[in-house]
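Just wondering, does anyone understand what follows?

——
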Amino acid sequence: MGRMERSRIVVAGASGLIGGALVRSLAADGHEVVRLVRREPRGADEVRWDPERQRVDTAGLVGCDAVVNLAGAGIGDRRWTPEYKRLIRDSRVLGTAALAEAVAALDTPPRVFVNGSAMGFYGDTGDRAVDEDAPPGDGFLPSVCVEWEEAAHPAAEAGVRTAYARTGLVVARGGGAWGRLFPLFRAGLGGRLGDGRQFWSYIALHDEVAAIRHLIDHDGLSGPFNLTAPEPLTNREVTEAMARVLHRPALFPVPAAVLRTVLGELAGDVLGSQRVVPRRLLESGFTFAFPGIDEAIRAAR
């Protein structure tokens, strides 16, 4: 099946970088978008939920064609204290479980449930390229991603087509890791992180949204999909591209020891290497609008 006619699509995490862009894209094409919110709803386009307490106003999901869950506390928003690591996990796992169970309980469930995930599933892959057949890695983020995806199983077990969007580093000005890089490079303060040899698997925000819509629209697509550009690059190559596109020097490499002091445990993931390729997405016929790093940066700036 190709792109859907006007549909009712529920989005959790609509206030985030990716969720906000997805909502704008869907609304621009005439779809009815319903946002899940934690406060009292202010209109018919909002539905109340409480992900940590695993509560969803199921009545608000009635009649939806698709549910997209992108909710979760930001990975890089704060230092990883034990409390914040618990929030990172719970905001994903508990919310997903609540939403998947609510979807499964509907008399007429949606056609598709697209659940967020991340390339963190694979852990540090070094120079080895990995696709969706690779097993999970070791460590905090892989364990979170495994639980995150498993929490969506009630929807799949109820017969709802369920896809997992294992997203890479999103090239965008408005948030995420790249949102922090742009001002540094514009100020001439950019540089490689650590030795710069670690692979970064990136994706333009436009392609991220298009890929999620691709997963919504095409009936045969279920299971995990890597949402990353076809050719991952090293951090050194990304740094050179940022300097080239923004016409700024990249003179200030950040030593690994400094990153560990500033970021704590999160530094391990910044310095880690993830060479993730989108095999299943490409095989499904998806076409990237901005596959190269220069064009992805230009699209974001």
Summary: The domain at 8-300 is CATH 3.40.50.720 (Rossmann fold). The first strand starts at residue 8 and ends at 12. The mean pLDDT is 91.
